[in-house]
Amino acid sequence: MRLEPIANPSLTRRLTLPALAIVATIVIASLLALIAGGNPFAVLGQIIIGAFGSKFALLETLNRATPLIFTGLAIAVAFRAKLWNIGAEAQLYAGAVMVAVLGTGALQLPAPLLLTIMALAAMMAGAFLLLVPALLKTRLGVDEVVTTLLFNFIFLLFVSYLLEGPLKDPMGMGWPKSAHLIPEARLPRIVDGLRLHWGFALALIAAVVVWVIDAKTTLGFEMRAVGQNAEAARFAGIPVTKVILKTALLSGGLAALAGFSEVAGLKGSLTLDLSPGFGYTGIVVAMLALLHPLGVVVAALFVAAIFVGADSMSRAIGVPSYLADIMLATALLFMVLAILLTKFRVRRD
Amino acid sequence: MELFEILTSAAFWAAAIRIASPLIFATMGELICERAGVLNLGIEGIMVAGAFAGWIAVWAGMPLWGGVSVAFMVGMGLGGIHSILSVPFGLSQHVVGIGLTLLATSATFYTYRVMLPEVSTPPKIDAFQPFPIPILSDIPFFGPALFQQTALTYLAFILVGVVSFTLYRTPLGLAVRAAGESPAAVAAQGLSVTAIRMGAVMVGSGCMAVGGAFLTMSAFDSFFFDMVNGRGWICIALVVFGAWRPGKALFGAILFAAFDALQIRLQQTGIGAVVPYQVFLMMPYILSILALIAMSRRAEVPAALMVPFNKGER
User: Fold this and answer.
1) pTM of the model
2) B68 to chain A nearest CA, in Å?
3) Contact A321, A314 (CB under 8 A)
4) What domains can be seen in chain B, in order of their start residue?
5) What is the ipTM score, two decimals?
């Protein structure tokens, strides 16, 4: 077989194929639910109810979507420039560490000032963490996929060391966790009494900002140009290396905000289980969003809904909640295939 | 002085060879894929799946070699998914690979929970036992270090020979290497680049899965969720370190494993009392990055690595 480009893909084709990808994912999830002894309709229904069925469930979904919007944006920005940042997990923790360092009483400042400083420090830490692999890529040609992946393991061990050493909570009964943030260092809730913090609003703002950078600025244009064809971009006079490094700073900073928002908004202290893989799930979010910044918000809500819903389904029906992870991985693979097939036709030789 | 004693003990090198074994399988697997032109980032997930598949098969009553075969088949199947998406459809090998790792890992954990819903500690199997090779195992130093390993470790070394011989001494190997260097030339010979690449990815993925199975069936006798713990990514670094050559990659894997064995030993010495244990645990990952940096200037990357081939298009 070979692929033949389609000059003007019809709207039907562009809508049907992604829809088919979602249907195929649901079919596979249903089969897996059957294998585990669950009624597929009950399982899928419970996932939807668990994600949206009550005010509590809905807020939980929005809360879960918050870090995913940040990591999804981080990945989208990087992948657009073909900078393969698989290290969002480490960058998230880098941001979280800065929050734990600055927010536990080291700085006594009014809340708005303190939160701003913490957010900026978090972004700088995350940016630095991605700058190293980016420099290794641009200077020495070391593949950033492997280095960013390995950084995840290295940095998590570093966090583990911090939580058992310098950042350890003296009142923590020996648990590896940081001290609690002082009240001024906590992101307030958007509405009193509802468990949704300003991190979510910040995530939405970040998405709009990234979209503006992407669509309206020279940097956004340069990033896309480098991603589409680095050689051509270089030929056209775009400083490719600089653009890659700027992309790295932006991407790492965005991922770090996920850590900032989780610690300052939700958890109030740093632990080693802060992120159940938000950095990796961000890749799925970004791909499902077709790397579009505003699409990331929608995709993050969708992914968060599946996770929150699956947790609730697992408690109610007993089918393992790993079903959610399988659904997302299959959705990712089917979706990239579907997108390809909107642009190409399969021909037999 | 302590260091000298460690480095000259046969037990140390026996441990290094044991630690190297799963890496050798998976590195050979990745090397086969990459020589054919496909970067397989599914390696981490495939190792997880292989570790589980081999172990659960033996737990369900299959003989040990049956378990190894099951792991290999599961790896082939996952490699099949990767190769369909990355070869004929030519999708981004980064995205497909990461997606496959997520899929294989979550599917493994799901299957584990479905098959063993009630257990708090995973059951143990009768794993491969050391199999001293007659005569050779009596050689001083080299005997205990090399020839008192499990059968699966011997298989890892045999695999390096087979891969090396096949790649450099057979028409099949030539075709695989050409598919990774100059696919158009392969197509001009009337061979199918698609078939060669898909086959290479499937066989390579099978080897990765056996690497995973080594962990549950030889190194340990049970399955844990975070068992593979980045070994797949390390193997990708080892392929680069080995300059895409089986022999050099084997050397890299053993060197790497020796460092890993050394950090375990050092944790128990005076240094371990001062330095936090996390620093020791970081060493394998840091070493991998250093290896990548060291080799960056001299890399002999297969020219068509990560370049999809669409006949008649380019």
Assistant:
1) 0.94
2) 24
3) yes
4) 11-116+150-298 (1.10.3470)
5) 0.92
Give the integer Cα–Cα distance in Å for A18 and A295. 14
CA distance linking residue B32 with residue B201, whole number of Å: 7
Mean pLDDT to the nearest integer, B167-176: 96
How far is the C-alpha of B282 from the C-alpha of B91, rounded, in Å? Answer: 33
Question: Per-residue pLDDT tens for A60-105?
Answer: 999 999 999 999 999 999 999 999 999 999 999 999 999 999 999 8
Give backbone dihedrals phi and psi of B192, rounded to 5 degrees, phi first: -95, 110
Report pLDDT digits (tens) over A52-62.
999 999 999 99
The Cα B13–Cα A71 span in angstroms is 43
Closest partner residue to B110 (CB to CB) among A37, A320, A336 is: A320
Separation in Å, CA of A141 to nearest CA in chain B: 6
Q: Hey, of A97, A231, A322, A344, which one would you mutate to test binding to chain B, going by the most B CBs within 10 A of its CB? A: A322
Residues of B in contact with A81 (CB under 8 A): none
Cα Rg of chain A (Å, integer): 21
Percent of chain B with pLDDT over 70: 98
d(C-alpha B209, C-alpha B231), whole Å: 12
Q: For residue B292, list chain A residues with Cβ-Cβ distance below 8 A.
A: 136, 142-143, 146-147
Instruction: Specify the 3-state DSSP secondary structure of B269.
Output: coil
- What local confidence, expressed as pLDDT, does residue B311 receive? 67
Among the listed residues A258, A330, A321, the one whose alpha carbon sits nearest the alpha carbon of residue A51: A321
Measured between beta carbons, the chain A residues lying within 8 angstroms of B114 are: 35-37, 320
Cα B36 off chain centre by: 17
- The alpha carbon torsion through A9, A10, A13, A15 (nearest 10 deg) reads 110
Q: Which two tokens stand for residue A220?
A: 């956004």
| CB distance A150 to A89 below 8 Å | no
Q: Phi, psi (5° rounding) for residue B126?
A: -80, 95
- pLDDT, one tens digit per residue, over A258-294 is 999 999 999 999 999 999 999 999 999 999 998 999 9
How would residue B299 be classed by pLDDT, with cut points 50, 70 and 90?
low
The answer on pLDDT for A193 being more than 90 is no
Q: Is A142 on the interface with B (CB under 8 A)?
A: yes
